[in-house]
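Q: Protein A?
A:
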Amino acid sequence: MATLTPGFSGADIANLCNEAAILAARKNKSYIDTDDFEMATERVIAGLEKKSLMTPEERKTVAVHESGHAVVSWFLEGGAPLLKLTIIPRSKGSLGYA
């Protein structure tokens, strides 16, 4: 979990654990697994997934943009490692993130 939560405070991690538990309960699971923590991390960092429809051209534009972040991150010395890249729109205003 430490890899998914750089810079999180104790309260942030508690919130993340609660979100993971809620996600697991919604799936009628009796335990919380790694997938639940990953989905909870996305939810805490970027917000809820928006169900807005993007045109293929918009999706391509967002994909190229986020890929640019990944390439720059790869080549920057001392940069933080890339944990995830997505083009799924989120409620906090982003169309994707890296």
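Q: Protein B?
A:
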Amino acid sequence: MKQNMHLSTETRMNMQTNQEMVYHGVSPLLAMTTSFQRRSIHHKKRSNNSYSRTHNPNFEIVKGQLNQLYGSNRCVLYSSGIAACSSLFWTLLEPGCIFLLSSQLYEDTMQIIEELQTKIDFEVILYKVHDQNHLHTLIEQHADRIKLIYLESCSNPCGYMINLKQLRKQVDTYCPNNQQAIQCAIAVDNSWLSGYLFNPLDHGVDLVLESSSKYVGGGKIIGGYILGRHHNKQYKNLTYKIQRAASTFGQSSSPFNCWLLSESLETLSLRMDRISRVSLLVAQFLSNNTKVTRVFYPLLESHHSFKIAQKYLTKGGPGVIWFHVPIDKDRAIEMADEGTNFILFATSYGKSSTMIDPYPEVGTNTLYDPNSEYGIEGTWMRLAIGHANEANDIVIELEGLFENYI
């Protein structure tokens, strides 16, 4: 340091911040920098990191963890789950193509589609979420134009599931890939379950999306990601385009959020085990309660998807239960807003606290179409189980709500 005394105090202080540091902490360091030294390719300590929008040590740690969780070999990180979704749609979108979507998706997903349709001429066809034969028919009818089949592994809010291996077989039969590109990609939003409970990549899908704002981040971390396994040139080209779009449009995650996500991933299994156990017990309570009209939970025998859910969800089911009560919307809101001690009137899931909200947020007392199978008088409620709450506590709280408001 003595030989640098001719430099100003500010410059010498700055040089201290650029020293390479050996760190032996149990948790990873947080690399809060936008730039990295770009040593020449011949330097023995050359790093792959250059600029934090594309590369950062915290990015690589989280990518490694998620690739281990899903058995994937490509992971693209995003600033939010919606950013991941919009990046996927934009990458695959072509004028005149067809996006074949589940009829039951997260409402903001459909808002992206509606916005894209104002810019580019493409067709959206919805298949009946609970009817795989309908999906099969649409694939056969429109095979030459379908660019994307997009669904949720377990639909929000009903919890419907389909046989993904059967879907893979149908797509391979009617929409074979060419030598350069995937003709029709199957992408699955796995936020409702998490990679701990279910892995769609094991069942033949091309890409998995997940919002880290839900289970993975414990309801505290805004972010999202797309994962894939590329075994040939077509898959490699697709995942490269997705990665390029994320960087080009500035949709990357931040080092701080990735550091938080890395810490949260280490306890994912513990939280999901408890959420799944408690959710099933509460769902069983609701299904046996005379003041509840109907309950949707995939691991109840009464559910349309019970057989496939029982096969797929060997570790447990999702942490959200959708149920119907015979009171109007105003009364249901009053019940959620004023009647609870620890169940919060709030939206989303994956948090430590249990939450309840009338869903969907529409003006009528019925879901979407009064003539549909869900169109019964009353209000649908979405109950998201928190990982800090035990089943007996939630049941006692719900019993009190029902007694006072129904």
